[in-house]
Amino acid sequence: MRKLGKMERARIDVTGLGKTYGPVTALTGVDLTVAAGSVLAVLGHNGAGKTTLVDILATRTRPSTGKASVCGYDVATHGHEVRRRIALTGQFASVDETLSARGNLVLFARLLGAPARAAKARAEELLEVFGLTEAADRPALTYSGGMRRRLDLAACLVGSPEVLFLDEPTTGLDPVSRTGLWATVRHLARSGTTVVLTTQYLEEADRLADRIVVLAAGAVVAGGTPAELKARVGARTTTVTFRDEWSARWAVEEFQRIGLAPTLDPDAYTVTAALPDAGVILALLRALDRYGLDLADLTVTEPTLDEVYLSLHRAKWQQPPAPAAVERDTA
Amino acid sequence: MNARHARTTRAPEPHDRTGWTGSTLRTQVWVLTARSLRAAFGDYRLVFFGLLQPVVLLLLFSQVFSGVGSLPGVAAYDGYINYLMPATLVNIAMITAMGAGAGLVAETYTGVVGRFRSLPISPVSVLLARTFADTARLAVQLVVIVVAAVLLLRFRPDGGPFGLAAAVLLTLVVGWGLSWVFVAIATWQRNVELMQAVSFIAMYPLMFSSSAYMPLQNMPAWVRAVATVNPLTYAIDAARALALGRSPGWALPLAVLLAMVAALGGGAAAARNFRRSA
Question: Residue ranges of the ABC transmembrane type-2 domain (chain B) (predicted)?
Answer without folding.
Answer: 45-277
